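Check this:
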Amino acid sequence: MEQRQPHATVPVFALALAAGAAACFGVGDAVGFHSQAAEDVFVVGWLMGWVLLAWSAIVGGGYAVLLARRVLSRRAVSRAEVALAAASLALIATVLATYPLWGTGSAVGG
């Protein structure tokens, strides 16, 4: 009986979600909040960024756990899967470091 192996498309999906989150945050920063319409775009971009980032963390983290379980059970793991999973987790960490959920208010440091 053939056992289905996960495909490398899962970490690509996590990478795409994290890139989408970074793009949403970037658009929100570029638009700013100087008018009501710009503030609406900023808020939607910020919310969509967090939704995409949360899903990318769930998908990427889940796949990393799956890869770790496969390595521990001595099943074959391709280098491409590991590289894609590492790239997606690195992008997630970079976006989290660049756009933290809290601590970005105007009173920080002052």
Summary: The chain is about 75% helix and 0% strand.
